[in-house]
């Protein structure tokens, strides 16, 4: 019944609307008819008026044509007169031009002659000055010549005196040379005598020594053989000795005299030698003076010759100048005569020029009169033409006005028609819109009722979900409590294990003691056997000792058996504890997997709730219809992205459906899994994501070059990752850890960055400057951070350039990266921009700034903030599928 009522209401409203439209159309057509009748009457009136105007204009046009013909005849006559006058004026102009040319020629000739005259006068003055200068030079040279002659005479006299002195000095020198030769002969003779005397002296000395020796020998022989020698022989010998002594004294006197003579002669020789040296020096000086005088003589002779040559040249120049002067005088006379002739010609030309000027003035007066008349005729003709043109313009303007009026009327009619059509169309559209409005209002009412019902259903669903969430949270809390109990039990078991280990160590010690005691026992038995074979007297005592030692051995064996039993019991207990420990570990892993599954399901449900809330907000507020949902940062966005397999080139990329909420990034294997919201492949916590960026060829070597603009990178903490436990471990090779366990010698720490020195042979850019960071042949030195993967030139670190600190102040062992491939480059840019906004709002940096200080004021380090209390993950070293082989990367995966 309600549907029928609604249909009837709709039909009624449509009929009312159609009736209103019909009435409106009828009124419009009536108005149009009235307007057209009025326009028809007006156009008829305008037509009659225009016909009357045309007849009048035709009559006026005939009168104007007659006047124009008369004026044209007058113009033709005036033009003929003008032609004749212009011909006369042209002839007069030609005559004037010829006269002016003749006048200019005459003036040029006169100016040339005057210039030639002035040049000749200047030359004459110059020649006169030159003649005067030459005469003065001649007088000076004559005076110089007389002086030179006087000097020559004086020099000749000096030369004669010097030659006489030279001859005298030469004679003196010859005499000195002769004396020198005589003295040299004497000196040589004296030297010879001296040498002979020296030889004789030496011979005499030798003889004397020989005789002294012989005498001493004779005396010795006499003393030895005969004590009483002949006195006569002694006396004879003494006389001989005395004679020899006297002869010796005489020889000494002679030698002394000879020595004196030699010394005197040597002194004389030295004096003569000195005199000779003085004479030689004087001779050299005289020779030098003679040489100087000869050179002066030669110079004077050369000067004399040069002066004579100059005199001859100057005399020839004087003769030439005199001849030139005569010629110039003749030329001056000739030029004066020509000047007179030219002056007479100039006077004649001036007279002719004055006559021509008078004729010119008369002709100019005639020309001015004719020009005045021609101007009058021209002004009259131009006035008539202007009148004619004005009338023609008026005619044209009238026709243009008529045409414009016609056009305006047509345009007005067209406008009226267009307006009428537009009005009708607008009215029709208004009617349609009103129809649609009424229909939309009815539909809106239906939608509002449906929407209210849906909201109520969704609220009930929300309440159910909240209840389920509360139940899950309760279960989670129970599981956490159970987990804590298990942890405590584990601790107890570990303590028991430690105790067992200590007991084992004690057992091993006891075993060693047993072995030593057994050895001692054997040694003792051996000794006892040896002692048994000895004396019989000692047997009784030995038997007593044996009995006591056997009793001790039995006791010790009992103790060892007891200890072995205890050991077996402890071993059994230890095996039981180990089994319990393994069971607890398995339980723990199962509970961890269940917990991760529950957490993943909770995250999926939370994202679904967020989506529903955003949809509710969009539908509830009508104003939010205009807003773009992409601009809202809290809204959930989703899409298809590809994740790399182990080897990109062989296995390629795996497509996954990604949903990004305000807290989580969820990866589904397909859209069906997303609809189920129970089976996500991977969930990343946004609070543990560090940053997102696009990659370069250097970052992803094994990827295809075409895919690089579509690839981007996510960097996050390892604890922010939650994987599906039943999935394969290496199914999604999404993350790779930077190997920063041990610091290499090549690393450099600067502002939180841990730089490695690298060289890039593929296109890469610096994060600080626009310079290239790569080269095929000689790449520049570069640094790459092991934590945040930022690339810079080495110069920036060496020069202490301003570098932004590292974004990842965290434990490097828990850092992971994920490479993602978008469908297009635009999608990649959109994903990067959205994720960067979301990371800025609720990423790791935002959370670390909020939770930088704890409740009691103590600061928490970034590494502590990213670590959790329980880490069910173990380090598994693995090479990245996409990054270069030389970079060490660690892959973290769940046990």
TrEMBL record:
Residue spans of biased composition, Low complexity class: 847-858
One family name in Pfam for this protein: PH_MRCK
Alphabetical UniProt keywords: ATP-binding, Coiled coil, Cytoplasm, Cytoskeleton, Kinase, Magnesium, Metal-binding, Nucleotide-binding, Phosphoprotein, Serine/threonine-protein kinase, Transferase, Zinc
Location(s) in or outside the cell: Cytoplasm, Cytoskeleton
EC number of the protein: 2.7.11.1
Domain of life: Eukaryota
CC per GO annotation: cytoplasm; cytoskeleton
CDD domains recorded: C1_ROCK, PH_ROCK, ROCK_SBD
Domain Phorbol-ester/DAG-type: 752-806
Region (Disordered): 722-746, 845-868
Ranges where the PH domain occurs: 634-840
UniProt GO BP: actomyosin structure organization; cortical actin cytoskeleton organization; embryonic morphogenesis; mitotic cytokinesis; regulation of cell junction assembly; Rho protein signal transduction
Cofactor(s) annotated in UniProt: Mg(2+)
Keyword Nucleotide-binding (UniProt): yes
Biased composition (Polar residues): 727-738
Coiled coil: 5-244, 269-615
Alphabetical list of InterPro entries matching this protein: C1-like_sf, MRCK/ROCK_PH, PH-like_dom_sf, PH_domain, PKC_DAG/PE, Rho-assoc_Ser/Thr_Kinase, ROCK_Rho-bd_dom
RhoBD domain span: 473-537
GO molecular function terms attached to this record: ATP binding; metal ion binding; Rho-dependent protein serine/threonine kinase activity; small GTPase binding
Family the entry assigns: Belongs to the protein kinase superfamily. AGC Ser/Thr protein kinase family.
Protein name in UniProt: non-specific serine/threonine protein kinase
